Amino acid sequence: MGSAVSIAGGGGGVTVASMISFATAPASLPPGQRVYAVGDVHGCLDRLRALHALIAADLAARPIAAATLVHLGDLVDRGPDSAGVVALLSAGPPVAGLPTVNLMGNHEQMMLMALVSRDADQAELWMRNGGQPTLRSWSVPLGAEPATWMQYIPPAHLLFLRDLAFTHRIGPYFFVHAGVRPGVKLERQAPQDLLWIREPFLSCADDFGAVVVHGHTPREEPEIRSNRIAIDTGAVLGGVLTCAVLEGESIGFLQT
C-alpha cells in the first residue's frame, strides 16, 4: 500500500512533503490518465481544502494529459461545516483546471428526503445520523420546524445536492459511494445499494465487472482488494481524509 503524503508547513504555501509511494493497483488506466478519488468528507471543510491543495501540488509537480477528481459522496453531516463543503464544490472545480465529479452518498439522500418530504420520520432519521451539525452550518435556528429548514439553504446548494451523480466510470474503475450488489450488472444497480450497501458487497471476492472504488464503511487505512478499493478512513471520527491516486498500474494516497 502506498504511504500517505501530508502537508508541509511554512510560508502559507503547500508542498508535497515527500513523493507519493505507489503500489500495484488492481487495474490499469491508459497512459496519460490519472484519477484523484476522495473519500467521505462529512463536513470537514479544512481537511478537504488541505487535500485539494495537495492534489494541486501533485499536479504541478507531475503534470499529466488527463486527470479527474472524484468525490465519493457523504459530503455532509456530522462534521463542522457541511455548508462550506457544499458551497466550495457547488461553485465549480475546486482545483483549477481539474475536471471534477461529485457523487451522492446516503447522507445527501437522507438530507434531501428530510428537506423535501417534510416527513417527521425522515427528519428524525436524518437527525439521528448527524443532521443537526449540518443545519447549524447553514444557520438554521435551533428548534426550527422541519417544514422551514429548506428556506435557510441557498437554492444553488439544494440544486447541487439534488443533481449529484450516483456513479462514475473511468476505464476499469467504477466510482460509487457505498458499493454494488454482487451478481447484478453495474448498469442495473439499485440506488439503495449504491448508497447504502455493506454486505454482501464487502466480503464478496467476485469480479464486479470493474474495480469498485468506494467509501461509506470507515476503515483505519485504505483497503485494496482485487475487486474493490475502500477509502473512507473516518475523517470525522478521528481518522484522516484520504485521496486515492490512480494512474497506470499504480495506486498511492494523499491524506490530510
Tell me what the structure shows.
- The protein is α/β, with parallel strands linked by helices.
- It has a single domain (7-255), classed as Purple Acid Phosphatase, chain A, domain 2 (4-Layer Sandwich), CATH 3.60.21.
- It is built from 8 helices and 13 strands.
- A 6-stranded mixed beta sheet has the order 3-13-12-4-5-6. A 5-stranded mixed beta sheet has the order 7-8-9-11-10, with no helix packed on it.
- It is globular, with a radius of gyration of 18 Å.
- The two termini are 17 Å apart.
- The model is unreliable at 1-17 (pLDDT under 50).
Compressed to H and E, one letter per element, the order equals EEEEHEHEHHHHHEEHEEEEE
Coarse morphology: globular
Under CATH, the homologous superfamily reads Metallo-dependent phosphatases
The CATH class turns out to be: Alpha Beta
The residue ranges in which pLDDT falls below 50 over 5 or more consecutive positions are 1-17
Q: Order of strands across the biggest sheet?
A: 3-13-12-4-5-6
Number of strands: 13
Helix content, binned percent: 25-40%
Give the percentage of residues in beta strands: 15-25%
Instruction: Note the quaternary state here.
Output: single chain
Distance between the termini: 17 Å
Instruction: Tell me about the largest β-sheet.
Output: 6 strands, mixed
Number of domains: 1
Radius of gyration: 18 Å
Mean pLDDT: 93
What structural class do helix, strand and pairing data support? alpha/beta
